[in-house]
Write a structure and sequence with these properties.
21 strands, eight-stranded mixed sheet, disordered C terminus
Length: 523
């Protein structure tokens, strides 16, 4: 195997996989390496057998990892996600899925109900005008106020008098002051329409999210979101890897990276080489030769500490980014003996549809023994997305942590798992917990470099753990990395990359390049 590449990418997370597919499709010679024996890295989709192996491996380094119960029969029929998420029906990620053709490698369906936990019951959250007028939980005056807010949020609010001076105030207070909404309605909008993670999150980014989700509603159906089959983002990452391999990408999985070095040993830190020579040499365990590249793109978790400080860290330039960004995520995966259908409040809901893919939101302070500052998301899955065998269900519970916690993920999330099981029992749905695992997902930090950045070294930050916007951030970061890498490599197509970079989209630009060089492969 030829061991010289234009680009080597370390890690098969969603961002890295999108980037690799784009670079391979653009004609660059790419090697994609992951020490794990599976695709997806920290966002992987695993069978239950693989999940238990993952838990046992991480127990050695993390006291917060634990699992209970025996692995049920047909363990390989489960596909569980280490980082569950939903896909906005309009946004950078869905555009990349469609334009790249990777969408044909997977299957998707609409997210079912979005409900909020309030005083021990689940209440549907109005997602449109029709939902508002069908609701019997709000007075006529409250309905008019909510409608006024939704019209405001769907429009060009940036220079409005309502927002002036309120951009950095918490959204919850903004809704009560400016639109006179009741506390219950304001909480529902803040945490189950704006999907704020923290009680202190500011108004402007939340409004950007709400506007995006309102526009997404109706594209494929009543919901603003889609869910992927077979575990979601991990399966999609594998789809992008498949697209990269079809275009010539080389894959090495299950081999640890033993060293990352400068090519010239006389100048180990900052070699000054011509643009045509390789700048990095990668040694892979049990691999005969070093791999050389001119551009190295790596997950921050795989970069040695001394390289993190000199890497060019690519940040998402998305107006709806959560503020502040979580330090870590406490997560729980629970397997239930019985299909999951949410208890329905027929007096409040105008929908009769049932789905095993839904989203439950616990606002801060809504549950005794729960968090007072963080909202908790519970995503449900089951046979409807091929994530579990017939008659079984999966709960994904996620809590963002603004700082390091002295408590384990189990202590933080057990009250929420108990509350959800009690909701089912109250509806006479007997759900037996047959397997559960708790773990802490730490989000690797990487300080942005200054002018001393090592040329050709690009670092990919941890994927945003946000349930609704994480995949869009991944697509935006991937595009930014692609453009930086392509510009740096200064290949024969540099002029084409530079032309029309602003007016053309990410994947359409690659399609034009294909047509220019006469390739007839269709994505």
């Amino acid at each position: 195997m030829d061991n010289h590449f234009d680009v080597i990418v370390l890690g098969t997370g969603l961002t890295e996989s999108i980037t690799t597919a784009a670079l391979s499709k653009a004609g660059f010679k790419v090697a994609h390496i992951d020490p794990n024996p599976y695709y997806g890295a920290d966002e992987a989709s695993l069978s239950l057998d693989e999940l238990v192996q993952w838990v046992d491996h991480h127990k050695e380094d993390n006291y917060s990892v634990a699992h209970y119960g025996e692995v049920p029969p047909h363990a390989r029929q489960y596909s569980v996600s280490l980082a569950p998420s939903v896909i906005p029906s309009i946004g950078p990620f869905i555009s990349s899925l469609i334009a790249s053709g990777v969408s044909r490698y997977g299957s998707f369906k609409l997210l079912g109900r979005v409900v909020i936990y309030d005083c021990g019951i689940l209440k549907d959250v109005p997602q449109s005008k029709d939902d508002i007028f069908q609701s019997k939980a709000m007075s006529l005056v409250e309905k008019r106020r909510v409608t006024r807010f939704l019209m405001f949020a769907a429009g060009e609010f940036e220079n409005s008098k309502e927002l002036h001076g309120q951009e950095n105030s918490p959204l919850l207070g903004f809704l009560q002051r400016k639109f006179l909404l009741s506390e219950a309605t304001a909480r529902a909008i803040t945490y189950a329409l704006g999907y704020c993670y923290f009680i202190s999150e500011t108004t402007l980014p939340a409004l950007h999210r709400i506007r995006a989700y309102l526009k997404a509603s109706g594209r494929y159906g009543s919901s603003s979101f889609l869910v992927g089959y077979y575990g979601g983002s991990g399966e999609i990452a594998q789809g992008f890897c498949r697209a990269a391999a079809v275009s010539g990408g080389v894959y090495i999985l299950g081999r640890s990276i033993t060293s990352i070095a400068s090519v010239d040993p006389a100048e180990p830190e900052y070699p000054v080489l011509t643009s045509e020579l390789p700048r990095f040499a990668i040694e892979v365990d049990d691999f005969p030769d070093r791999l050389h590249c001119r551009c190295l793109i790596s997950s921050t978790t795989l970069l040695p500490g001394h390289l993190r400080t000199v890497a060019d860290v690519i940040r998402p330039s998305i107006s709806s980014c959560s503020s502040p960004r979580p330090f870590a995520m406490a997560r729980c995966i629970a397997i239930l003996d019985g299909p999951i259908t949410l208890p329905s409040d027929t007096k409040d809901s105008g929908t009769s549809e049932t789905s095993d893919s839904s989203l439950i939101v616990f606002p801060p302070g809504s549950l005794e023994g729960g968090s007072l500052i963080s909202a908790v998301h519970v995503v449900t899955a089951g046979p409807g997305t091929m994530s579990a065998p017939s008659g079984k269900g999966i709960l994904y519970i996620s809590m963002p942590l603004p700082s390091n916690s002295i408590h384990s993920a189990e202590i933080l999330l057990q009250p929420y798992l108990t509350a959800v099981l009690l909701l089912f029992r109250a509806e006479k749905q007997q759900k037996t917990l047959i397997f559960s695992t708790f773990y802490m997902q730490e989000l690797a930090s990487c300080t942005a470099s200054t002018s001393d950045a090592l040329v050709g070294l690009l670092a990919v930050p941890s994927l945003s753990p946000h349930t609704t916007q994480g995949v869009d951030e991944a697509a935006m970061v991937a595009e930014a990395i692609f453009r930086k890498a392509a510009t740096f490599l200064k290949g024969e197509r540099e002029e084409l990359f530079n032309q029309g970079c602003e007016q053309n989209g990410f994947w359409p630009l690659l399609v034009e390049m294909e047509e220019g060089v006469g390739h007839d492969v269709q994505w």
